[in-house]
Amino acid sequence: MGQLLVTHRASLAHLGATMRLFDTNIDAGQLASNQHRANTTGLRHGECLRLIYDALRDAPQPLTTRALAERIMEVKAMPSTDAAHRELIQNAILNSLRHAKGTITRIESKGVISWQIYQAARARCQ
After folding, report:
1. pTM of the model
2. Cα–Cα nearest to 116, from 125, 124, 104, 99
3. Looking at residue 86, which CATH number applies to its domain?
4. Which of 16, 49, 99, 124 supports an S-S bond with 28, CB 3.0-4.6 Å?
């Protein structure tokens, strides 16, 4: 890991030198860097979608977003009584579901939206 950091720092130094070739007044240290958002859900990158698949695979019927949130919070040992945190988890679930097109299907019945793994929904219709 140390060598990788040294390599990245050297690359940044070269980038700064190249920028000064085109603009001698530029201060590379003053350029805005990418802003990183704080992780407020307690889930690592990609973990939410994996937990969604696990929950849907084990479910005998389609699950609502709230039910998915409760299952994920249970697996991660998060307090389910915290409504604000549950809402953050639900938003993370909805965001993750956008990346699962083709593998997870949305089912709407009587105004209630549920989710199911696509293969199970397809077999049910046949």
Report:
1. 0.62
2. 104
3. 1.10.10.10
4. 16
